[in-house]
Specification:
- It is a single chain.
- 18% of the residues lie in helices and 38% in strands.
- By secondary structure, it is an alpha/beta fold.
- It has a domain of 85 residues: Cupredoxins -  blue copper proteins (Immunoglobulin-like, Sandwich), CATH 2.60.40.420.
- It has a four-stranded mixed sheet, with no helix packed on it. Strands 3-9-8 form a three-stranded mixed sheet, with no helix packed on it.
- A hairpin with a 6-residue loop joins strand 8 and strand 9.
Length: 125
């Protein structure tokens, strides 16, 4: 008898809870975060010939991602320096290094080793 009474009470509570659950707002999915602007990826290497490639075209206002691997120890290009952007990034041997920036004005940006002996040009169109 007690079991039947408990079962009846449980059923009554379950039924009473249904209307409240039905009126609750369903959770809404959060708006997806805005995707960051895609970067122009440029793969570079440092070889005995210098920076490869040594001439690169990019667009003003476009995010640029240089992915650089130094393949030789017989070079003074153990870093990349882009003075006009305040970039001075070491390039450890056989390690991929990423340098990101967004050029703000058209023209030419020189990149070079720390001694300014090995260099290349970024043409910003």
């Amino acid at each position: 008898m007690v079991k039947q009474t408990l079962a009846a009470l449980a059923a009554a509570f379950a039924v009473a809870a249904l209307p409240a659950a039905a009126t609750e707002a369903a959770p809404t999915a959060a708006a997806p975060a805005a995707k960051p602007a895609a970067a122009k990826v440029i793969e570079m290497t440092v070889t005995s010939e210098g920076y490869v490639p040594d001439k690169i075209h990019v667009a003003k206002g476009e995010k640029v991602r240089l992915q650089i691997t130094r393949k030789t120890d017989k070079t003074c290009a153990t870093e990349i320096v882009i003075k006009d952007l305040g970039i001075n990034q070491p390039l450890p041997l056989n390690k991929l290094v990423t340098v990101e920036f967004t050029p703000k004005k058209s023209g030419q940006l020189k990149y070079a080793c720390g001694m300014d002996m090995i260099s290349g040009i970024l043409f910003v169109d």
